[in-house]
TrEMBL record:
UniProt entry keywords in alphabetical sequence: Amino-acid biosynthesis, Aminotransferase, Cytoplasm, Pyridoxal phosphate, Serine biosynthesis, Transferase
Quaternary structure annotation from Swiss-Prot or TrEMBL: Homodimer.
Family under the similarity heading: Belongs to the class-V pyridoxal-phosphate-dependent aminotransferase family. SerC subfamily.
Limits of the Aminotransferase class V domain: 6-349
Gene Ontology cellular component annotations, sorted alphabetically: cytoplasm
Protein name: Phosphoserine aminotransferase
Role this protein plays: Catalyzes the reversible conversion of 3-phosphohydroxypyruvate to phosphoserine and of 3-hydroxy-2-oxo-4-phosphonooxybutanoate to phosphohydroxythreonine.
Length: 361
């Protein structure tokens, strides 16, 4: 039975590759002859051990994660990392935060509970429509770490360079662009991401942590927020989010079959280029974001007024596209076009946009 699927432009939880959903469906009742669903398995069983090990191995291969990094499968969302990072990394007590949007600002506010936190750069002066350049950053070489949000899901900006921090570890929130392109993991001290945007389903947070940054948590740190016991027990200090890890495994398998991150990057560039090129040629729509800082994952734009934005959201939903309404902090529209969004989804969106423009200009 082929269900009618729509193009889901949600920022997260977001669409998954159909192949992944079908495979999960086919394995739902009886995983590889085990006689049970992955959901029903003990996390300490042999069958599950193979799933989590294979998932980590695939992630290590796809992202080329060096051996001196631990991969942690955690819960609590990306938001819990806003607390875990300062609790684990503040030793001298100072950190530099670069605030380029909503989630970076939340992380900054949270970190202030634990130490001497400096605002080392921000794009608030222009409503977060750009990424600060290296020379605009005021970095302290004595900081314990430098924090940034690699892709600003709500405003639609993305870092296109890794700042030079003179050896101070960079902590990057990659919730909305991890696995969208190859990266150099060794440029970062910690990379973390909630899985529900580009890695799988909600309930899982992945943290890739350089080993020397583990084991320095403040003594009052709750055990579930301390990287050390979680790393020592290979994410099995307690029950990990077993099914979400399994889904990540299927997504990674799909990425492998598609040809890996270089292929993902090319597809993502093509999709984003098509959409931005159309936005640039239209007098009806506009995008506020500085062209060189445009996100390949979350494309924000607006029509001439808020009434038309609301009509756009309504009519696009009726035309088989969901979640195109922008975040309330920005207004307008947002098309999230993660790995799982096919080119045809973007083409369908642009065809709708052209028609809407004709009818409403
Ligand atoms: C969605 C998102 C978050 C919040 O993730 P949760 O898993 O809901 O805590 C944090 N940072 C970025 C960049 C996001 O896109």
């Amino acid at each position: 039975m082929a269900e009618k699927r729509i193009y889901n432009f949600s920022a997260g939880p977001s669409m998954l590759p159909l192949e992944v959903l079908k495979k999960a469906q086919s394995q739902m009742l009886n995983y590889e002859g085990s006689g049970m669903s992955v959901m029903e398995m003990s996390h300490r069983s042999k069958a599950y051990d193979a799933i989590i090990k294979k998932t980590e191995e695939r992630l290590r291969t796809i992202l080329a994660i060096p051996n001196n990094y631990k991969v942690l499968f955690l819960q609590g969302g990306a938001t819990s990392q806003f607390s875990m990072v300062p609790l684990n990394l503040l030793q001298k007590g100072k950190a530099d935060y670069i605030v380029t949007g909503y989630f970076a600002n939340k992380a900054y506010a949270e970190a202030k509970k634990y130490g001497d936190i400096a605002l080392a750069g921000t794009s608030k002066d222009k409503d977060f429509t750009y990424i600060p350049k290296q020379q605009e950053l005021a970095l302290n070489k004595d900081a314990d770490y430098v924090y940034l949000c690699a892709n600003n899901t709500i405003y639609g900006t993305e870092w296109k360079y890794v700042p030079d921090t003179k050896g101070v570890p960079i902590v990057a929130d990659m919730s909305s662009n991890i696995l969208s392109k190859p990266i150099r993991v060794e440029d970062y001290g910690i990379i973390f991401a909630g899985a529900q945007k580009n890695m799988g389903c909600a309930g899982l947070t992945v943290a890739i942590v350089r080993e020397d940054l583990i084991g320095h948590a403040k003594e009052f740190t709750p055990v579930m927020m301390d990287y050390a016991p979680l790393a020592e027990k290979d994410s099995m200090y307690n029950t990990p989010p077993t099914y979400a890890i399994y889904i990540l495994g299927l997504v990674l398998e799909w990425i492998e079959e598609m040809g890996g991150l270089a292929v993902m990057a090319k597809r993502n560039e093509e999709k984003a280029k098509l959409l931005y090129t159309y936005l640039d040629t239209s007098d009806f729509y506009q995008t506020q974001v500085n062209p060189s800082d445009r996100s390949l994952m979350n494309v924000t734009f607006r029509s001439p007024n808020a009434e038309l934005d609301a009509l756009f959201a309504k009519e696009s939903a009726a035309a088989g596209m969901s979640n195109l309404k922008g975040h309330r902090a920005v207004g307008g529209m947002r098309a999230s076009i993660y790995n799982a969004m096919p080119m045809e989804g973007v083409e369908t969106l642009i065809a709708f946009m052209k028609k809407f423009e004709e009818e409403n200009k």
